[in-house]
Amino acid sequence: MHSLKTGLVNELYMLLYRKKTIVMLIVSAILPVGLALSLHKLQPLMGLVAVSRTFPIDMLGFYTALWIPLFIFLMAADLFPNEVSSRTLKLSLLRPITRFRVFASKTLAVLIANAAILLLLGLVTVLCSLFLGSSGTFHSSEVIKAYSAAWLSMAAVSALFIFLAQWFNSASGSFAFSIVVYVVAKAAPFFSSKVASFSPISYTDWHLMWLNSSVMPSKLFTAAIFLISSCILFLSLGYFIFNRKEA
Amino acid sequence: MNGIVSVHSLTKSYGKQKGISDIELELYPGDIYGLLGPNGAGKTTLLKLITGLVRPDQGSVRLFGHDISDQFEQAMRKVGCMIESADFHDFLTADQYLRMVARFYPDLKENRIGEVLEIVGLQHARSQKIRQFSTGMKQKLALAAAIMAGPELVILDEPTNGLDIEGTVMFRQLVMQCSAELGTTFLISSHMIHELEQLCNRVGILFGGKLRTEGSVSELLEHNQSLEQFYIQQLAGMKEAIRNA
């Protein structure tokens, strides 16, 4: 376990040493503040537009649909194909750590980074909602529930794009392909509703289901099992390819 | 006597391209083994197979008695490597990179990073980004990482590439010192035959993916003026044999 922990710590440090990660984290925090301030200023002019008590949930929808997937594409491209093209994968593989643990540490780093963005977004939007928002009741349990659910859907999206990244030997190719796959997968349900049931990308807004009291617990359970299964399936396939890579 | 490195029937091919075939190699504690061969002979492929970077089609590699295919962590615990070119995450500083390496070895002394940087002559560049490093500096940093944990086996692929004269002398002294004081075993692939002649106690010549000749340097020098002369003779003989076959 020491090697897995070390691998994970190293991957997390490397994410933080990359300028683009820091920029994305800063933008993740600034974006809701900017939006909240703008809405606060515009409220007297536009009446209804205001930072409501549901601001953390409203922003979560935008983040899970666009911002976090973009972050996932970047991280998956950096941690896998970029390491092959820049021949730095061997730096990890030549240490006393198995390939499985190298793969696991990179994957865990992506999942932890997702959690960090969600935590940052949650904190910032809750503060915006409290200090700049309109009056009303604030349900912290709902926010926690929604953000936890969002993390699971982002984990499934991460697993899918980590798997896809294994097919590439260049970061730019992987990043561009991920965007195309994401757009196609988002548009596909408009043409065939069946696609939505079997694509983890269709679950980016499933946190809303957790806030809707009319949704049956069995449906939430089924969706959760689907997302967990997607994680297991895509990560297993991803590892299968990663394990065969020559550094 | 059990070998620190035991390679048996190791074979790897790349489609129609030759890799290596049927390699048998045994390294014993304290050996400084030089791997010689022309470009494309399979030296890097052999070192990649020994360190698990590439999977063999056939055969096995054991390091310290552990098979690298199923006991990789145990096998690599006492191994330091520098394979192919010295590539790094260039957004890191030398210190940040070596800290990452050091985390894998929890028993290291706190000032070990400073020590290895001083050994390779890079202490002045500790906080410098690797992207500002010259090829020789990167090579030195790779050497520093390879000896970080005081390994019992060091595997080096073209370690003097890009090193200036001072760097080459430092490398030679480093190998001699580790060998004399710590009994470190070395497996070195290099074209710098004079360097290998001074350093190694055993050499092997790889040609066309096969380990054609092996022997003790002192014995070879009894019958030849230099290792270079022996190598050239052997290579000519091998080429001739292949032409006649």
General description of the model:
The complex is a heterodimer of chains A (about 250) and B (about 240). Chain A is mainly alpha-helical and about 250 residues long. Chain A contains eleven helices and no strands. Chain A has helices spanning about 1-15, 20-45, 55-80, 80-85, 90-95, 100-130, 140-165, 170-190, 195-200, 205-210, 215-245. The radius of gyration of chain A is 19 Å and the shape is globular. In chain A, about 40% of the residues are buried. By secondary structure, chain B is of the alpha/beta class. A six-stranded mixed beta sheet of chain B has the order 6-7-8-3-9-10, with helices on both faces. In chain B, strands 2-1-4-5 form a four-stranded antiparallel beta sheet. In chain B, helix 4 crosses helix 5. Chain B is globular, with a radius of gyration of 18 Å. Chain B starts with a strand and ends with a helix. The interface of A and B includes residues 18, 87, 91, 95 and 96 of A.
Task: Spell out the key features of this protein.
heterodimer; A: 247 residues; 81% helix; B: 245 residues
Apparent shape of chain B: globular
- Multimeric status of the protein: heterodimer
Instruction: List the secondary-structure elements of chain B in sequence, H or E.
Output: EEEHEEHEHHHEHEHEEHH
Unreliable spans of chain A are: none
Largest interface: A-B, 25 and 27 residues
**Number of helices, counting only DSSP H or I runs of 4 residues or more of chain B:** 9
How big a fraction of the residues of chain A is strand?
under 5%
Please tally the β strands of chain B and state the result.
Answer: 10
Widest sheet, order of strands of chain B: 6-7-8-3-9-10
Helix content of chain A: over 70%
Distance between the termini of chain A: 23 Å
Biggest sheet details of chain A: none
